[in-house]
Amino acid sequence: MRPILRLALMALSLAGPAAAQEGGVPERLAALGRGAAWQPAGVIPLAFNTHHPQGMARVGDRFFLSSVEIIARTERYPEPREGLDRSAGEGRGHLFEIDAEGRLLRGITLGEGSIYHPGGIDFDGTHLWVPVAEYRPNSRSIIYRVDPATMRAEAMFRFGDHVGGLVRDVASNTLHGVSWGSRRFYAWPLDGAGRPTNLATAPEALRRPNPSHYIDYQDCHSVGPGLALCGGLNAYRPRGSQGPVFALGGVELVDLARGAPVFQLPVEHWTESGLPMTQNPFAVAARGTNGLRFWFAPEDERTRIYIFDVTPR
To answer: For residue 44, what is the domain's CATH number?
Structure first.
């Protein structure tokens, strides 16, 4: 086990089991490798148009899914305009509540004007945290806190960058975010009302570069004090720019204080159409004595949630 990962897991154990939002996930993940057994455990077809899913969280036996409905696509500018490389496009941001059989129970819209693209979401045990941004890098975002019992959304703050995913670390009462393509990390310590204490600091001064480049994170979840599990993918062209695309997905355990992964694992499973399981959002939980259960939602519009039980060999 790598020294940095060992230290991260020691900190988790010292914090006590009550501090972990998904107990045992980091330790179980660290026991896996490319030889881990991935056992398919079911598929849940969602019985409605999901548009383009972005984030997924489990609360009890229900799923909450953030998604962007694209009405008019963005268009690339010949040259950047005021630091932006494309038009704003048009769309609607959604947050769906789904039961265990894939039925839509409730839904709300989030965002305003050109801010319509929800990102990866996190559940902190009380609230869902949902970022909604313009559908272009280096833009702006609104950060929402949603009560899953009532589906009431509260805009907590605005930020001058595209925030593509959120994690709330309960132990430090800090909200963490990743930018477009997860190329930047942000951290916002929260006050008692759940609002950042460092909003007067310019985004440029808060950002830290992500040193990991083989995948771009699509969704992240807190899995214990100071730790997040992020899933994502990247596309590669082994035969050059005109050749076929090979898409590889994976998950990374991220040390939030350092803004760096401490454990990486490829997810070598694809849909029948060739989409990596980590194409869009995911969720994870400890299962059994040493295993994990993953839920993946890689498809747009007619989405299916694929379930895998993973154990060390």
So the answer is: 2.115.10
Identify the domain containing residue 180 by its residue range: 21-311
DSSP-derived 3-state class of residue 10: helix
Whole-angstrom distance, CA of residue 228 vs CA of residue 20: 11
Can you give the pLDDT of all 313 residues of the chain as single tens digits?
A: 555 555 454 444 434 333 334 559 999 999 999 899 999 999 999 999 999 999 999 999 999 999 999 999 999 999 999 999 999 999 999 999 999 999 999 999 999 999 999 999 999 999 999 999 999 999 999 999 999 999 999 999 999 999 999 999 999 999 999 999 999 999 999 999 999 999 999 999 999 999 998 899 999 999 999 999 999 999 888 887 788 888 889 999 999 999 999 999 999 999 999 999 999 999 999 999 999 999 999 999 999 999 999 999 8
Distance CA 142, CA 158 (A): 4
Is 1 within a domain? no
Residue 143 inside a domain? The answer is yes
The answer to whether residue 44 sits within a structural domain is: yes
The count of other CB atoms within 10 Å of the CB of residue 167 is 27
Number of structural domains (the chain) is 1
> Residue 10: inside a domain, yes or no?
no
